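Quick one - inputs below.
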Amino acid sequence: MTSNSTDGFEWTKEEGLRKGVPTIGKIKPATNISSTNHVFDVVIVGAGYAALTAARDCTVSGLKVLLLEARDRIGGRSWSSNIGGYPFEMGGTWVNWGQPHVWREISRYNMRKELEISQDYSHGINQFSVNVAGKTSDMNHDEEDAIMESALKKFVNIDGQYGRLIMPYPHDEIHNPAALPFDKLTAADRLAQIGDTLSAQEYVCLKGFILLCSGATLDTMSFYEFLHWWALCGYTYGGCIEYLIKYKFRGGQSSFAINFWNEAISTNNLSYTFNCPITTVEDDGNKVVVTSDDGRQFKAARMICTIPLNVLNTVRFSPPLSIGKQRAANIGHLNQCTKVHAEVSNRDLRSWSAIDASSKLLYALGDGTTPSGNTHIVAFGANETHLEPEKDIAATTQVLKDLVDMDIERLVFHNWSDDKYAKGAWFFPGKEFVTVFSEELRARHGNVFFASSDWAVGWRSFIDGAIEEGTRGALDVMKDLSNSRSRRDLTKL
Amino acid sequence: MTSNSTDGFEWTKEEGLRKGVPTIGKIKPATNISSTNHVFDVVIVGAGYAALTAARDCTVSGLKVLLLEARDRIGGRSWSSNIGGYPFEMGGTWVNWGQPHVWREISRYNMRKELEISQDYSHGINQFSVNVAGKTSDMNHDEEDAIMESALKKFVNIDGQYGRLIMPYPHDEIHNPAALPFDKLTAADRLAQIGDTLSAQEYVCLKGFILLCSGATLDTMSFYEFLHWWALCGYTYGGCIEYLIKYKFRGGQSSFAINFWNEAISTNNLSYTFNCPITTVEDDGNKVVVTSDDGRQFKAARMICTIPLNVLNTVRFSPPLSIGKQRAANIGHLNQCTKVHAEVSNRDLRSWSAIDASSKLLYALGDGTTPSGNTHIVAFGANETHLEPEKDIAATTQVLKDLVDMDIERLVFHNWSDDKYAKGAWFFPGKEFVTVFSEELRARHGNVFFASSDWAVGWRSFIDGAIEEGTRGALDVMKDLSNSRSRRDLTKL
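Output:
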């Protein structure tokens, strides 16, 4: 059951550009409450995976939850449009069984057999194209892997063991405090250290890959954070592919997210309102009052705030957020990734991939085959040369065609930079951010708890990290309410 | 707070052999119910990780749970004794962040920083000893890894890609049906196929390693199941070490298990009785009546049975279990591993490891340093040459000393084979078991649901698999009760 969200864009030759795409993640009706008088146990702001997990865990444990979401759909920065029965992933896409929080849910919802692999090298041109200074070289994917591996190993080899000594526990990243100084480096700083050792192809491939990860610029992105990704991926390029860009849901992310929603709804403990952006959060010490932009007020004993880092400061908190949280939100993260799906009639491109580190879409690959037999290409750009496809479709198609000759029938995308509820894609920080602000961002603020993949401990930036944080937020609120109620019961005696 | 379980053995030079060791996993009081009249929502039989997870999830969701456990402690086949403040792991030990279910819990209980590494090659003799036909060769651990890797790659390379083609999804193991025929092979069958390619050292190392995994015999253990372990471990020997035998809880397994227990208890929805072996389970279609060996009867709407495969047939079910379940339980699994801890005064042995595939303890390694500065050695035997340490301590110490010269001050162990509530260690099957019986073992039987790592989908045999199964069992029961209550409500209308 798909219906149109106001989010996302679709362009076709016949119909041109349209705002809004169909998704199974749009919830109908858009609200199930008629009054705002009730004082809920918890108000959860947001409907991405952190919020969905928190809502699911809280409602299952018997708490009365009110969920408020600015958009018309669930999923936050991970959702799939569904066009002609085919899911295009508008944001977060890939998952792996080594990502503990997301896989626990995939297992629990019995979706282990719902995965498919983005890459298909079984037919077609089976080719990787790398563009160095205007000249494109074509090679096979084994050669691609060899260049990538060689370049990445040079990039991360800060300890003679490819990061294993400096960051031995990816889920306890400063276990070895020797990791800390690496957060003083940007990617550009690190590249300067190893520049002499890289071939021109290696440099371009490396640049393409790390900008794919960060959606930022080499001059600003934290080298430490990339090292953390690398550690999470098992300290190998093969691991990076396995974890970052290989396995996706056959039915799209929204087919996964809807399970959390349905379970929460089935408890009869979930009240909700979509299309409800909030403006202020007031905590009087006993309860939290949340005001929406149309002036409605909602009350709850506790709040779980899953508002992304880059928009946290658009909400006024009373009492104000800590200086640390305010500073962190002002600085924000750097990921202004552009992700564009192209449906192309060139079937041979199913097994194609490319890096052109000077293109506005610097990393592209065959990602699927649509029901009509066309090839689905996905392409990523970073903030080095920012592209907003809806503002110039002709330029966008030209950027794609400059990568390889293709006949584009459809484009699908979400402009995360121009999205006022995200102001960017997945979290990727500048230097001296994570090691300075993460703990502060995780801290509660009176009756308000914070949960977002943007400050997760493990797979920060990932769906896994969002579920990690939603789990933590729900548990903290459950414990807190249980304690305060025990105290209240005691004072009655 | 430790107290003595009746489980486990400790031997010291001064005190000789004693049955029962201290653990933080013994729950006091041993029961919190005074009558058996109540009809619970769920009765959970067992207190290992499957049962603890199910009890935690069910109680948190508001169900009234009765947990019945035959032993005096939680943890089932994973528990730690605590002797002089030092945890000796009596069963399941190692965990990893790539094991999704267990890591989700480690993250949720904020225990990410509670891990330590078994191996410590920073001082001492730093040596691996391999015994081939009575002659011991000593080498460094890099040489050990090289032999192991070479041998294992030959063993699993059934597709030119070290198993990746035949079993591409470790959590969907027959995704490629071409995996199925490999369950017709025992390890010995597979060894016969590659025997000509192995050096004598490679053969011994390989034999030691696969018997370490199975606790069985080469002639009987399933090659397919080993392949599944290999796939779970990322298709590399390095992955095997990372996942199988590296990271353990500084405070012991029981320090982890107690969190599940405490959370369940905190809901006020958990009733329980330890020291309560059960004899019969009768399902009248509306409720389940469980009878204990002292004649008490307990009633619940549903049951989650976590009784291990090898003892499932010691309980009488009415109506009887399906033929498939009965057959599976009669066949059972093959793991009769002997695990012995030795506290030795030889500090140099902290960095020692050994394989002697003809020894009754065929795989041994330095596993820690005790508070008194002694080295803690752990050694494993398999059913090829079965050892029951408590029956002949002198012989056991001699087996250890034959591996390397050591001065033994203490032995600590649990005889899993002689344990009537386990009849074996972690699950490891013979050929044509998993591919024939697993789904059947997961199936519900009327109002009785089954949850055990012995038939998990993913990390079967592991703590992770137990948590996977406890999660599934709880969710299935919650859904089932919710459905039947909705139906009941409807019929009232």
